[in-house]
## 1
Amino acid sequence: MTSFRAAAAGLALLLAAACTAPTPPRSQASAAAGTACARPSGPLGAETATTIDVIEQAYFCILDRYYSGATLDARSLLTSGFIALTQELNRNGRDVPEATMPALTGDRKADWTAFEAAYRKITDQVPELRDKLAVVTLEAVVSALGDNHAQWMRDVKPPPDSYDGDGYGLGLQVNVTGLQADGGPGVALPPLFVTAVQGGAAQAAGLRPGDIIESINGSAPFVEGKATPAIAALYPQYPEARPVRLRLLRQATGHRWTATLKPGLYPQDPAALQVVRSELLEDDIAYVRLRGFPSDAAKRVFNAITRLRTGRTLSGVVLDLRGNGGGSPSEATRLVSAFVHGQATGYQCAVDGTCETMRTDDTVELLNLPLVVLINSDCPSACEHFSSAVKDLRLGRLVGTRTAGAIPGPAQSYLLANNTLLRFPTTRHLGPNREVIDRIGVPPDHHVPLTPEDAAAGRDPALAKALTLLHK
Amino acid sequence: MRQLLAVAAGLAVLAASACTAPTPPRPAGVAATPTGPVTLPAPTGDHPVGTTVLYLKDASRPDPWNLDADARELKVTLWYPTGQRDGQRAPYMTPKESELLLKGSRITGVPYDTLSKTRTHAVEDAEPTGRRLPLVVLSPGFTKPVSTLTSLAEDLASRGYVVAGIDHPYENYATTLPGGRVAECIACDSDGDPGFGMGVVQGRAADVSFLLDRLPSEWDGSDRIDRSRIAMAGQSIGGASTLAAMVKDPRVRAGIDMDGTTYARIPKSGLTRPFMFIGSPQHVPGGRDISWDRDWKLLTGWKRWVVLTGANHQSSTDLPLLGSVLGITLPYGALSGARSAELTRTYVAAFLDQNLKSQRQPLLEGPSSRYPEVRFCPVACGRS
């Protein structure tokens, strides 16, 4: 899937528009009195430069609205921002004698004033770096939250020669997700291998599923069993276009070779991009693959199952959520509601511990069919909300590998003065047993990992296990 | 992204769908009082107009949307010159189609059969006349039946063109098929999926090729068509489909895209056949939609890119004409329904007369004092 920088995993599906429509001028969002930022209303206007005033707005917006904004130590945000600022100065060979961190007291407003004064003094001496410094500082303030769903989203124009449905990158998928490669919570296991070839450079170079990647730009993907940052080079984001050199091993033949792949746009089959795909397996099992939770996801799954059920008796449903990018929590709840009524699918909790219950929608008709859900490390957010409900409420069996562990809480968008968006959760997501899922993930009931041999042979052992369970 | 919810103002209400787009800024409009049925503007050409409907079935491929349909059905409405002035005028659409279109577009407050009362000019099943007539295929916007292009279709027929308007079933709110079956918008379920637009235009290109294959055997009047002179035009994703059909099928000699974001891949070697973009002010070079800029470089034949001041996404359809009966007020500064229709008819006909009839059209050479709304891009139209 096309995944430009602005559309991070989990949001990509919701944001990817079928048609890139020109967006007209936006009517001004009215900021509620006393708050630093408001929800956007209508399409965004053209992005303008990021200034210290925008950073200030973001800082107070986080303190006002972020899940733990009321209790977090605001100095951590400013320190993170200042570190990034000084690093960027050095990176550009323009260090400034006065670039020292001001003393912070813990008083949020006074600390901001001190930070802003220091910031202005520094940036005034390097006017040519002004924009760049503002961007890295704001990015660092947001990343200080250490929250997978907290991000600052800028208006990144797609590549000028891109088409709807194009992918960008090397054209391959591997068994380590972008989140894991980026230091995420999930554990990646060696060896690193190709799970799918989608097109582009990987296809042109003749790579195949099952090929083992022994090195990336000369670095090992794993050292002493632990994934290294080298893997992140497999996930270039536009406009990054540096070629990536891979050393590869095809186990079946023992062939070893080196391929240099240049990131770029590549076409994808529109049918393969459909959010919902379904087919009948073994004459009586409805297989439905769901790639995300957009606003009508549950309805589309129900329609698919109803269609496969017409004129026959089904013995079960396999819901394939591997590679599901997440999306709407209410759609996850609605999907759960086809398997149970009168239950909590999860909780949204404030920092003071008060929680709102996410209840099943009991107007949804029960399917009354046995369920197996296929999961893996590429199942974040709403995908984990659904999976945890299936597990805790005993609605079916989970088969595959542990989910991503990227479900802090549903992200809300706030508009900043330069027409960029700040997104972060205002509540924490807990599972039906009030357990934390974020960073931990949901473990499968049946651990069935994919091996390079499976990938090379086109086998899907998790699906095979699911069919066995449903026919038992 | 889904834009099915009616946007408050003006004609944006009907600008529903994936592939539309530009939601205009909210105007300070005054609600209009719904009035009686609308009569479409009279065709401006010399000939009376006849119309008839064909139903085609392509058994070589399954329907791309209805997984239970193992053949692709098409409904084709033909408009053509006739010698017959009198007779029953064709219905604009059925009451059921009107209902489904209004409901789908979230238009409330008017009777659901309102659009079916619209008065047309074409005589139902009249005998065609003329010879060596050029053919124009029309493809409508997503969620819209092709009847929303009737004003343009009747005008072209009166000027001596055979017009074949395609209803691509399951891609609009209502297409009536043989036996009274009504195909509703199954494609609307997936219009937010990545690659959706690409899939639609590939399917429509196949629809067009099938129509061109079958028209000679399916319509008695088809010996009046000069099969070396075929063009296509469409609105929104119908315009995008025009480009897709031209890339795939060399029989389509020329094409017009009316405000549609495009999806088809033009080969790197370029497309040499004549093409014209007609856009609303959102579709200027360097705008948010990159697709016209991208394609412009690959159009290597005769080409034009015009943008109409005061136009919106629906300006080339009948919807601005129908606004009064739907209780929709045009935003301040917007083109009136009559003016939208006049501009669309004039520039589409000029393009076709030049490229299918080899009649040079000064209108297409640059700005005209009679049509000051028309700006010629990319040179003479900055971002607005």
## 2
Amino acid sequence: MTMKTTIIPEDQKIEIKEEIKRKPTIGVYALTSCYGCQLKIATVSKIIEIADSVDIESFYMLSSASSMHKKVDIAFVEGSVSTKKDLEELLEIRKNSKTLVGVGACALQGGVQSWNHGDKNYKDLFENVYGKSKIEISEAIEAKPIEEYVKVDFRLPGCPPEEEEIIYFISTFLFGSWPEEKDYPVCQECRFAGNICLLIEKNEPCLGSITTAGCNARCISYNVPCIGCRGPVPNDVAWFDSLAKVFVEKGFTEEYIRERMKIFGSHHPKLEELLTKVFGGEKK
Amino acid sequence: MTTIKFTQPITVDHIARIEGKAGIEVQIKDKKEVEVKVNIFEGPRLFESIVIGKSVEEATAVFPRVCSFCAAAHKITGLLAAENAIGLQVSEQTAKIRELMYIGDMIESHALHLFLLALPDFLGYPDGISMGKDHPSIIKTALQLKDLGAIIQTITGSRYIHQENALMGGFGKIPTKTKLNEVVNLLRNSKDISTVALEQFVKYELWEEVSSERIHLALEPKNNIYGIIGEKIKATDGTSFNANEYRENIEERVVPHSFAKHSSYRGKRFTTGALSRITLFSSLLNDKGKELYQNYNNFINPNNPLSNNIAQAIELSYFIDRAEEITLEILDNYKEESRIKPTFKEGTGYAVTEAPRGLLAYMISVNKEGKVRKADIITPTAMFLAQKEVDLKIMTESLVKKGIDNPSEISQKLETIVRSYDPCVSCSVHVTKLGR
């Protein structure tokens, strides 16, 4: 057997070598949020080691050497788009990044600020807070996940994300690979954690069965029913309808069920469709 | 004397190393008339609007999302207001565990602010990471103290950002004795590094140019022990009011350059924060706290915002002692308790506490089913914004008078003043509301 060798032209060879030698550049940015994802990234215990293996180009919360206009290999973006200025910045970040990672509930699901999405008129909500006074600095718009405006390459969920997941994401990029999304619910980890089922056995409004795993069912281990902060399970397997049926059997009202599912799920395209199967007709 | 030539306003589009998004805009007319605006463009999240009609238990889970730096402060203050609304009295042990969690937040927030956000300005670095390359022991201390605060919040609240374990009526699960004993050990092992921040900041003189008279507001702590829980707010002008009267005493107004409103106390601008606490209640510190306060008294000028760094640094040391005391008290009377599930009835509740950055006020009104009818929150950053703008104006005027004409030099100084307040921009914006 003979081995086939491909001859790489000299100029291309150099380019590959430099690409490998160079540390990946990273930017950490925030739109409208609580800054918790950035705080979590900034305080992961290995941050100093990680900082040595990457070039952090921008990290507004930590460094005054930050800029939206620098090119980066990987951009981590937290926050929802809630003003025109947020949108301009998001577009600028997308333009300047090879890979964009949406981080946390605000970027991925619109955040708790989207709790009323689909229920109440944004203008009314805004005027309830600011009155008719004019704020000239930027125009406020209804909170939306960043995916409504730009392509998101990877999703790092959580409110805030888990430390080990942040390290996993950064590590895969350093190895030249990419992170895999968790596509199974909190219940799976909850069984492994050895918890009793708060929904079935304690009649608590636990959202574990429709919520993306990755937290090792922390809250349930503390006897606190899941509030859904990691967002609905991806790939259209968040069965809002089945869970709503069990909630009804447990005595919860339609209004309460919808409100609880909407804290972190209001922008989910299937939420209303699936709830309609249970409650019928138009929502009350 | 150098002539000042500003062809365009000095602007800092986005102040780094603070929580949230804000900028500074300085206009200088005729080389003397100075106008300064702190532009707040962090987007609104309308917390007080979105919780209306929702179950109050869910609302108290959402409130900490106002801000990650002071999530525990928002969680506990929201819980206290909600419990006051329905007349729910928690156990003494619950109150103590909450106070411990709150102090954990204070330690973490002060450590992050002092070492990673404020100190790089004084040592001349753009950030803590590059500062750490030359000063590894400072960064090591910073992370150790930050972790200490985070661990306290994690064992009490289940995690250090958005503590779901703290609920109306108590906790899902109370911390075990083993965990509490671990906390005691950690606190004892942190005592020798508790004043590192203070030792750093007192190497630098306060900029006298930024001093001007101001009113301070702080919560009178319960049991005469310097702390964060209380019922009555005192002011340095000799006046005072009760927590449930805060809406009649603190007013807010909308300004065009900010999504955060500006507040006033009985018509006057004021400030709040560690410097206010220490100015009003230094006599309630423990012996070591009092000693630090006396030793570094030259650096504590109530009229100089830069003193807030010093006040926070003294508090950092004090709260480590206080956390140990409370943990030992919890261990001495440890009871296996489950939380009291709330029974709802119509009512309105108020709570005011001392968050890391100053007074935090909540009002929650619920109907008989436990749904929120009305909510009102005023955060420390919204309270001191107006005073902060005045400080920046005074500083700019005095620099211009001295003939300093380098915009980057001026803006660097202004940013340092902004950081000394430890502003929490997310907080100030997310909860602003219309005047009553």
